[in-house]
What does this fold into?
Amino acid sequence: MQINDGTGGGHSAKVTGDGRVAVNADDGCLAAAKAGLLYSMSMATGSEQSLTITSNGGIIMYLSNSSKAKKSLVIDSILVASGAAGMICSVVTGMTEGSIARADPIDALSTNTGYPIGHSAGYSAGVWDEVSDGITGFTNGVYAISTLLPAGGPVELVPSGRFIVAPGGNIAVFAKNAGEFTSAIRFYEIDEHKGY
It folds into this structure.
């Protein structure tokens, strides 16, 4: 069965066998989680549970997709929290990567406990080592989202797949102003040529 909108523009909706309107909703996150392919990385997977941010600020956590990867990374969520009100926090994309320093490598873990720990080899990630003001080796980039954080948290900066990191791309969390800070990134992979 089909419902036509009556305007002559060809807009219609399908109806399922039980009389409900069919929807084409994105279930990529749920499907990835069921398959053990939804990953989470946080400062808890690095050497620190939280970091003491400097007043100068810098890149605190990053996720890079290899230029040779056959998958894009869908960022399902970026969560951040600050111990001090007024900390500036940003999501930065499209940075030029040089020689990365002041970063401890971190791994992403499957959110499905029924699967072994591991991931595809297509990405690299790191968290600031609390030396100097932030991770170095990144230049340029676009500050896609910036906000002032309240004390406490968490705050979800990126909900539900709003960013896709294509092969050769990256995404990072920037924080500035003195205080304790923590962040986490949850993502899954899709074939490079697919989109929404």
